[in-house]
Each structure stands twice: as structure tokens, then as C-alpha cells.
Specification:
The strands form three sheets. This protein has a 15-stranded mixed sheet that branches. Helix content is 28%, strand content 20%. It is built from 13 helices and 19 strands. Helix 2 packs parallel to helix 5 and helix 12 packs antiparallel against helix 13. A hairpin with a 6-residue loop joins strand 15 and strand 16. By secondary structure, the protein is an alpha+beta fold. It starts with a helix and ends in an 11-residue tail after the last helix. The N terminus and C terminus are likely disordered.
């Protein structure tokens, strides 16, 4: 029967994989007996040329992820006597395959990769990999939806190790022993995760780009010292983006990552004001190509760098010197407390905000933005709320005035994304975009600045477009200021080029922890200890927050006075509250 045929086929493929692993073990033992383990096969001229070639030659490229995998698989099938499609390998078999290869990697090739910070450099020992794989396997066993993304990731890694870490002579030895080599997955990259917690995030960080937040959000001192992992690697060495699989299916106008195929062009990834995960929920900004990078005089191009200290505030004191749409993982039903994260996998919150002022000082590792937040959804009938977001060193304080009551949220922006060793997130480097790729010059509408709107109502400017991974940045060749920045799952930022001052006049704006976040300050304090420091298990006043939302939902703005009357009794400091509707 067809069922029996499929069963026999699976058993046959399993026997092939087992035989492949036995061949690797036999080869390793033979190498030890013959004294080959300590004296690896020498690298040929072709091996060295391949190692020194960062960008694949045309014969090894494709227009997109699927095409590229098909092209490379054809090369593998021609060079190898025995191959198996990715889906016919178990993750454990792939791990054993890679572990065996790692024992025979060529030192000369490793030295080349390491000397030029090539992404092919293997920085960990085989035992480190085995330990990490064991942890991944345990997590995936409890989250079966992660199995296929893990399997595909291992296939890509295994093919890279086989091709770039063994010299041709060593691969020849393995072929004589009947080695079977995995093929690349040939479909689009599968999205990883459903937003189901830290264990799932650990697996997806491995499958995607490990700790990529740290490229820009480590300390400036670590970055300046060249510490590993504190500078973005070259995205053009990759062709597998978007790294999180683009789970919402955004088109190339809304999202175009530097590491994907086809490569991003001018007027792609420009986006606009967005308000939901749906691709069509966007007021797309108009864009017109002026000139490709090769046709622009480099002397006229302003580099996408921030001043080391700055204040952005309109000279007339009005809102709008800096404006943004903040995007981040949804952590509460009303999107009051959220901030950007490292991927777009979970449902996202979107909030457009005008700023009275933005401060930044990299020497203090500090930034602060004073916002007016325009309420959306069920709270759109309520007055706008004000918010101050302060970040100093590795802690963030979100101070909201929720119509009639103050709230402080003490936050750890890193989300403890790595623990061994521990790592934290800091304000972005002043030179975060120093290595961004220049695409060329565009006429593009900039949202909100100088009393303009969004989409076709934006202020048309001729700007220079840069891209760094999923970040897009625009600078003004006239004022030589950074004007616009976009990341599809972090947000849109716009700066009035006339509102910049390269200093912070009063350092007290960075006072931390803020008084509102300490005991006796705001009636509602979330994840704050008595001194106002972040503590994941200490909160007070949650009942006030719940009561506020309940009264607001039931009675609308008219119910806010009822809330204040109750709050007076439990928190006398709130008696000074006045209601403006």
C-alpha cells in the first residue's frame, strides 16, 4: 500500500543517515590511528582562494533565498556522491554531522576568517556547540513548532561548515568513505516563534542573529574598544534575510532588509506612518529616485551619525522637533508599556507620538524624550496623555501621566536576552550607522516636521538613503543632519533639521532613578523597588491601574472624577490632581 511504501521510504532514509554518521565516526577513528588528527590535510590554492573570497561568485548566487538554495544544491549534487534533502535529516543527525566536521576543520582557513572578522569564523569549541545544541533540543521538544526552523538552520550551518571549514583533500577522504552530505532547504525561510516566552526566544536568537541588539546597544566604551559583538557585521555577506522570516508578510516598500535577496534598492523599505501588523495599514510616504550612489558626489553626502550629545527642540517651543511611531512587542491590552525588541514575531503595538524635546548624551549613556501621546482604539475619546521615557545606563523608566494619575514603569530593555555571560542593553551608539550602506539620493516626504502631516502631506525633501540590516536612515545634504530613520518592528523617527543643538544644557534632565519611580512617588509603580530601580517582582498600585481602566471603559472620560475621588482616600498625594478634558 502507499502507506507501507512511505513507511519503507522513511526507514530507508533513516538507514542512510545512520550510515552517514557511522562513516564519519569510522573516518575519525581511522584518522587517529594513522596520526592524521594532529596534522591536518594542507590547504590548496583553491581552498585559500575560497576562504579569502567574502562575496560569492556569480555562479553561486541567486535572485532570492529559494533560487540561491537551488543553485547551491545543484553544485553540491555535482560534487558529492551522496546527498539527502534537508527535510530527511533529523536535527540530532545534523548536529552529529557538524560535530564530526568540526574535528577536522583546517587551521589555515580559521586564521583567515578570524583575521578579517569573517562570519564564517567558528568562535566556539565543539564541546560548546554540543552543550548549546543539547539545550536547544530540550526546548524544542517542548515547543514542537520550532522543530522545522531549527532543522533548516542546522542544514544551512552544516553545508557552510562542510564547504568552508574542510579543505578539499579532507572532503575527498570523507567521500571515499561514502559520506552523505545534507542539502540546503529550498523553500522560503520559515518564521521562528510565536512569542511564547524566553525559552522560545533563546532558540530563535540562535536560528536568527544572536544578540543583534548588542551591535548598536552595547556601551559606547565596549564598542570603541572593539569588543566582540558590539559592531554590526557585514549584512551583504548574508542572503537569508529577513532573519525573523517576515512573519506578517510585509511588502518591500514597508520592509526590505539588507541581508535579503534581491538586494534592497532606492525607494524600498521607506514605509511611513503605520498603525497595525497588516501590510495595508500604512500611510506610505511618497518617494522618487534622484540618483544612484555611484552618481552622487560623495563630498555632498552627510554621514548618518548622531552628535555625541544633542537636544532636539523646536525654537518656538512647540511640539514636533522630534516625532515618532514607536513599535514593540505587545505586553498589555492597551499598549501603555512597551518598547522595541529584536524581531517582529509576536503581535506588535504601534503608537504615534509628538515630542516637546529629546535629549541624548553618549558619555552619560543617557537619553530622554518628553512625549504627548495620541490615544488610539478604545481610548481615542480620552484626552491625550503625557509620557517621559528616560534611559540611563542599562535601565529605562517610563513615566506616564494617565489623565488623573501618575504611573512609573521600571524596565530592563535587554529582556535578559543572554545570561552566560550576562548582557545588557544601553542607548544606541552615536555612530550606530557608521558602516551603513549608501543606496543613493531620493525625494521623499518626511512626516510631521515643520507642521506637516504624513504620506502625501509630509514635507518633501531631497535626502540620502542608507541601509544597515533592517534599519533605513536618511540624511539631509543641506543641513548635514540625520532627518529620518525607520525599522519595521521598532519604529519611525523624524527630526526637524532646524531643531538640533549639539549639547544638553542641563544635566539634571537625566536624574535617575526619577523621583516618581521611588516609593512615595507615583501611585502606580510597576517593577520598581523602593529606590526606583528595576525589580521584576516588585510593583505597587496595580489595583489603581485596574480601577482606572474599569471606570474608563464603563463611563468614558466622565468617569475619571469618580476614580480621583477613590484615589484620594488611598493615596493623599494624588489630591492635587486636576482633570482637563
Amino acid at each position: 500500500s502507499s502507506r507501507q511504501h512511505r513507511l519503507l521510504g522513511r526507514r530507508r532514509r533513516r538507514r542512510q543517515r545512520i550510515q552517514a554518521m557511522r562513516t564519519l565516526v569510522v573516518s575519525a577513528v581511522t584518522a587517529l590511528l594513522l596520526g592524521e588528527a594532529g596534522a591536518s590535510a594542507s590547504a590548496s590554492v583553491n581552498d585559500m582562494r575560497r576562504a579569502k573570497t567574502k562575496k560569492p561568485r556569480a555562479a553561486y548566487k541567486g535572485d532570492d533565498q529559494t533560487t540561491m538554495s537551488n543553485v547551491l544544491n545543484q553544485h553540491l549534487k555535482r560534487s558529492e556522491k551522496s546527498t539527502l534533502p534537508c527535510e530527511q535529516w533529523s536535527t540530532v543527525d545534523l548536529q552529529e554531522f557538524m560535530a564530526a566536521i568540526a574535528e577536522h576543520r583546517e587551521d589555515e582557513l580559521q586564521q583567515i576568517y578570524h583575521s578579517v572578522e569573517d562570519r564564517r569564523d567558528l568562535k566556539h569549541t565543539v564541546e560548546d556547540h554540543k552543550s548549546h545544541w543539547a539545550k536547544l533540543n530540550h526546548i524544542v521538544s517542548n515547543h514542537p513548532h520550532l522543530y522545522e526552523p531549527q532543522q533548516e538552520s542546522h542544514c544551512r550551518e552544516a553545508v557552510m561548515w562542510w564547504t568552508h571549514h574542510l579543505v578539499e583533500e579532507k572532503r575527498g577522504h570523507f567521500r571515499l568513505q561514502g559520506i552523505t552530505v545534507p542539502l540546503l532547504p529550498e523553500g522560503p525561510k520559515k518564521p521562528c516563534g510565536r512569542g511564547e516566552g524566553s525559552d522560545e526566544e533563546l532558540v530563535c536568537l540562535y536560528i536568527n542573529e544572536k544578540n543583534s541588539c548588542d551591535w548598536c546597544h552595547s556601551t559606547q566604551a565596549e564598542h570603541d574598544a572593539g569588543a566582540e559583538g558590539t559592531t554590526p557585521p557585514d549584512a551583504l555577506q548574508k542572503t537569508t534575510g529577513p532573519d525573523d522570516g517576515n512573519p506578517h508578510g510585509w511588502d518591500r516598500l514597508r520592509r526590505c532588509d539588507q541581508d535579503q535577496l534581491p538586494r534592497c534598492q532606492l525607494c524600498e523599505g521607506v514605509a511611513g506612518k503605520v498603525w497595525s501588523d497588516r501590510n495595508e495599514d500604512i500611510d506610505l510616504t511618497p518617494c522618487e529616485i534622484v540618483a544612484n550612489a555611484s552618481d552622487v558626489d560623495p563630498k555632498t553626502v552627510a554621514p548618518p551619525l548622531y552628535p555625541k550629545a544633542f537636544t532636539v527642540k523646536r525654537k518656538d517651543g512647540k511640539q514636533g522637533g522630534y516625532s515618532d511611531t514607536l513599535i514593540g512587542w505587545k505586553t498589555d491590552p492597551f499598549c501603555f508599556g512597551f518598547f522595541p525588541q529584536n524581531d517582529s514575531i509576536p503581535p506588535l503595538c504601534y503608537r504615534s507620538e509628538d515630542s516637546l524635546v529629546k535629549y541624548y548624551d553618549i558619555e552619560k549613556e543617557a537619553t530622554r524624550i518628553d512625549y504627548t501621546i495620541h490615544n488610539q482604539g478604545v481610548f481615542s475619546i480620552f484626552p491625550n496623555i503625557t509620557s517621559t521615557i528616560l534611559m540611563v545606563q542599562d535601565t529605562m523608566w517610563i513615566q506616564n501621566h494617565l489623565w488623573v494619575v501618575d504611573q512609573c514603569i521600571c524596565a530592563n530593555p535587554s529582556g535578559n536576552h543572554c545570561e552566560t555571560p550576562p548582557c545588557k542593553s544601553y542607548v544606541h551608539h552615536w555612530d550606530t550607522f557608521k558602516t551603513a550602506q549608501y543606496l543613493g539620493r531620493e525625494k521623499i516626504a518626511v512626516e510631521w516636521i515643520q507642521n506637516h502631516g504624513t504620506g502625501k502631506s509630509g514635507k518633501m525633501m531631497e535626502l540620502d538613503h542608507f541601509i544597515l540590516w533592517s534599519h533605513h536612515v536618511w540624511t539631509d545634504p543641506v543641513s548635514r543632519r540625520l532627518v529620518r530613520a525607520w525599522k519595521p518592528f521598532n519604529g519611525l523617527q523624524n527630526y526637524d533639521p532646524e531643531a538640533w543643538v549639539d549639547s544638553v544644557a542641563d544635566d539634571s534632565v537625566f536624574e535617575a532613578p526619577p523621583k516618581k519611580c521611588k516609593k512615595g512617588g507615583a501611585p502606580i509603580r510597576i517593577n520598581c523597588d523602593d529606590e526606583g530601580h528595576y525589580h521584576p517582582k516588585k510593583s505597587e498600585g496595580i489595583e489603581h491601574l485596574e480601577a482606572l481602566f474599569m471606570i474608563a471603559a464603563q463611563k468614558g472620560p466622565e468617569g475619571l472624577q469618580d476614580f480621583v475621588d477613590v484615589l484620594y482616600k488611598s493615596h493623599p498625594a494624588a489630591a492635587d490632581t486636576t482633570i482637563v478634558i
